[in-house]
Amino acid sequence: MALAAMTAACVPFGASSETRTTSSSRAAAPWTASWGAAVQPAHADPSEPEGNWSESGFGEETLRQVVRLSVGGPKLRVRLSNAYGTRPLKIAGATVARSDGGAKARPGTLLPLTFGGSPATTVPVGKDITTDEVPLPTTHREELVVSLRFAAPTGRATVHRFTTATSYRAPGDHLWSTASESFDRSATPPGTT
């Protein structure tokens, strides 16, 4: 289950830093959506005896999600959604890295995600927010890990119910952890091992 619904976008390789519009004014190179999840409201699922993460939301912890890009590029940014949240979503920090399998981040690749230059942000109820661009060259079909740090309870979470990737969570601040041991809980999609 993808719990903070995200979309990753890359500037394709070969795109110029500027393109001309029909009015001859200059505009930034277009971004290409490379990974996404349809957003849905939190839900109760009787097949999950302990409930699911969307119902309870998050507290003093770090959420790590694995995303597989469809296309790569020289830089990326991530869009986060609070479309169905019941309160403003306070993000205390965020990182992105190349995946090293499971909850592991490849050493030497962890980079901060910022929001208008700030490491923290608040996503209003019913809104989305996009990170600043990150100079992380990626390849087609590469897996990344995106980590979000919550320092306060989030309430019910915007979710994507039918994911095929496992998500991980750890108590406290583990944004900069490359190991998987701290991520002591996982949500694995049904039918996967």
UniProtKB/TrEMBL annotation:
Compositionally biased spans, kind Low complexity: 15-38
Top-level taxon of the source organism: Bacteria
Region (Disordered): 15-59, 173-193
Matches recorded under PANTHER family: GDSL-LIKE LIPASE/ACYLHYDROLASE, PUTATIVE (AFU_ORTHOLOGUE AFUA_2G00820)-RELATED, GDSL-LIKE LIPASE_ACYLHYDROLASE, PUTATIVE (AFU_ORTHOLOGUE AFUA_2G00820)-RELATED
Protein name per UniProt: SGNH/GDSL hydrolase family protein
Organism: Streptomyces ficellus
